[in-house]
Amino acid sequence: MSNISGPDTKQIQYDRQLRLWGDHGQKALEAGRVCLIGANALSTEILKALVLPGLGSFTIIDHQLVTLEDCGSNFFVHPSMIDQPRARVTCELLKQLNPDVHGTYVDKPSIDDLLKQNTFDFAQFNVVITANLPLNTLVTLSTHLWSLKIPLLVARAYGFIGTIRLQVVEHYIIEAHPDDTIPDLRLDRPLKSFVNHCNSVDFNSLTREQHLHMPSLIILYKTLQQWQKQTNRIDIPHTRKERDEFKQILEQLSHHSVYDVSDSNKSLENFDEAKRVIPSRLVNTTIPSAINNLFQDRSCLELSNQSHMFWFIINAMKLFTQNEGQGLLPVRGEVPDMITNTSSYVKLVEIYQEQAKKDCETIHNYLIDLLKQHNRFSTMSSNEAATLHELVHTYCKNATFLNVMRTASIKNEDDSLKKLIEQIPLESSSDESESEVSWYIGLRLCDAFYEKFNRYPGEFPLYIGLRLCDAFYEKFNRYPGEFPLSTNDETNSDQRQLEIDFNDLKQIGRQLLNSDRQQSSIRENILQELCRYGASELHSISAFIGGCCAQEAIKLITHQYTPVDNVLVYNGIRQSANVFKL
Amino acid sequence: YDENNQVVPTSIIPLIDGGTEGFKGNARVIMHGYTSCIECTLDLFPPQVNFPQCTIANNPRLPEHCVEWVTSILWPKEKPFGPDVNIDGDSIEHIQWIVEHATKRANEHNITGINFRFTQGVVKRVIPAVASTNAVIASICATEVFKLATSSVLLMNNYTMFNDIEGIYMLTYPPEKREDCPICSNVPVRVQINETAKFQELVDQLIEKYQLIAPLICTQIDGKSKTLYMTSTKQMLELTKPHLRMTLQELGLANGIELLVGDPARASSMRVIISLTSSMETITAK
Predict the structure, then answer these.
(1) Nearest CB to A2: which of B116, B126, B170?
(2) Which of A310, A362, A482, A516 allows an S-S link to A534, with CB 3.0 to 4.6 Å?
(3) Which residues of chain B are in CATH 3.10.290.20 domains?
């Protein structure tokens, strides 16, 4: 990346997003290939938010022709294009959004035939996305993609409701960029160089100037040392009483012989800062449980020639923690700003960065050894080998937040759904407000699954409702409530048809979920509302799901930020979004 | 508001507002009088990040400090592109000049991390953005407008926050309305002023506190309406200018009197109740 010289056109064009995922993220995106199945309003919204940021290439698969209905719901499509293949029309219009993006379409055969013939190479894609794809086709496709280990995003917009479902065998989160992080300063397990530096500071022989500019980190460590001596401990204060003792010592250190005469009103900014940051500095440095899980993960323990680089690096990191790291992850190397003079701050930064560099070097060496052991090193291209060091550096900087994400396959979804429903109690009166029942469901789920659901769970029943709509489609070849518009005289028959659909839907519900306790969970008013929608596609709801889905795809392609795990239900009525795991 | 202090429903113009920053965004539906408005929650906005002067001038530690030093201290001193030329964040030459000098300062202090993109980000106070978040927030706003136009479904209640950094997270809740909100409530504002003060002082106080441009102030004294201050026509300006030199007493403004203040900066008039304090009170209050 250029230093003083101005940015090139691409850097200017993508400037705002480069600040979010960096040049390397942008590079990954520009090498990304996405397959979109379905050319409707939802799919164009998804692709729009992928094409604009510079996705490498996309392929749309849809055998249907543009209809008048499409023009009503998709602003990419114009009545002049009726009877042309939907895939071609949307492909052309999307390419106009960004000439750097390469786009192709497949308008015959249909996706069903494509899957039957099994000649289409889905393995060329990083991500496959479906937009309002009927369930049968979806199950066939998802099973195929599961065996190919290609991530699948299932997007759906249905009236005011939208859903996204992620199916992925194994996804690696390398740069999570969490919103709030505690700095990695390790006052409880201080770096040797840091201790040496602090020991060279004698609080009693400081000049006024030095005292005023003492960095809060050193102040805190000195206080800690004294507290440990006083209480004969080697750890950090935990109880209220201990923390008060700590603060007392801190207060003492803030007094200096030079001050008290003329500066009685002076507020010592650095000492105030020290007091203020105690909660985030006096913390136990440990390996997060998620990382320990990675270390114990089967893919980590059964490292082989075929393993993904992720597991090699995890292994290298594990070796590090067991040896040089002494039970801790590599030092992150970042020091937050603090009130002090330049040289003091720079010195601290140097100490932590030096250690981070050393740790990274050690892990890099472990990695090379592992690769050689498993015969991977010799088969690597020179390019790959050269970038290994940078890759390890990225992993080390983000070590605390590395993770792997796995979801169940869509094929087994009905079983998972049934299991979840079984947790719903029998006595839930129909009068109860939705939030009550949902809260109850949420609590039951928490008990049964040891997961941290903790979300407003009102939307869960909606997902079941949508599955019933799918079953309705299988039976009647249309969605409930979806029938041709009638004239005014026939509105009565529309009402009746709606009621018939509703009753059929309820029937299906009873058939599909045959235990008594499961019935009550399917709220009748939800089914009624879904009937009202008649599988209509509202463009603004499609836009919401489209934006979310596109960003999920970008997360999967760049391995930055954490994807949704693994079902999102969006309720456009209450403007709420809920995530749960199936 | 009508005479019974009830909101007149037909007078409400719904306001739908949305904003994004990187992967975060928010949207709200405001029905003034019913829901909380922007003013009600104004103090929830975080203060702007500004670096203290002594850090910029004497103790730079971060690359941002070096850039700020160049823009706030060096540029005004050297005026590299001309005596009246201010920094243009979009000008490549300007930014390059800043990068050069910020790097020099950074090198003097062993600070690293300055490059073109970083510098421009600091100078222009760039907010990162992505197409997806914008699409999401825009869609929420559009959905709400659609609901208003079709009356098909309940509106959102009334403030939503969105974040897709980790998974996808959305929270919708109604922030509380401020009972005495100067914008959406009809509760009069109370202003304290010394009983011996001149009218000019009161006018200045109102202008500063509520960011008024050219206030029109009138009141009722003994059942008759009186225009205290008006600047919209030359005639009225001449007529009311002498009022400024008069004391509140001379103008007939007693303790507790209610003024009506209109201004181009505000859509509707403000009710202001005067509270007169004696000299002793005002000094101790300070």
Answers:
(1) B116
(2) A482
(3) 189-285
